[in-house]
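Customer escalation, tier 2.

The customer says the design service returned an amino acid string that "doesn't look like it belongs to this structure." They asked us to rerun it and document both sides in this ticket. The original structure tokens are below, unchanged.
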């Protein structure tokens, strides 16, 4: 099983910044890594995803959030600036790709989630 370990959530005032990190363990080749969030009473939604040659963002975070990855460390980051109360949610990391062993076996894993709370 490919494990994802997230860190960096917390409480911040509106207008502030937070940086989330997510590290994937194991002998793996990662295709895409992304961040999703789920607010109380709402469905989980995509925030941002980064592939080898492209990135995509939800319209609600464009210009405020930046996703990046360190391929050598199998780690993805989400820099969140100009945070708003509506960004409050549990943020989940996702990664998919292939394991080295057994050769070609695919994985699609989720982190445990990290709480981000933005106060007004």
């Amino acid at each position: 099983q490919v494990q994802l370990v997230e860190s960096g959530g917390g409480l911040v005032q509106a207008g502030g910044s937070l940086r989330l990190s997510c590290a994937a363990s194991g002998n793996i080749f990662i295709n895409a890594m992304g961040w999703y969030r789920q607010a109380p009473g709402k469905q989980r939604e995509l925030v941002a995803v980064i592939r080898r040659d492209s990135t995509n963002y939800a319209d609600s975070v464009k210009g405020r959030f930046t996703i990046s990855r360190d391929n050598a460390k199998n780690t993805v980051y989400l820099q969140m600036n100009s945070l708003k109360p509506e960004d409050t949610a549990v943020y989940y990391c996702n990664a998919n790709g292939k394991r080295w062993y057994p050769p070609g076996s695919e994985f699609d894993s989720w982190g445990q989630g990290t709480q981000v709370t933005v106060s007004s």
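Tier 2 assessment: The sequence is consistent with the input. The two ends are 39 Å apart (CA to CA). The mean pLDDT is 96. Sent an explanation to the customer and offered a walkthrough call.
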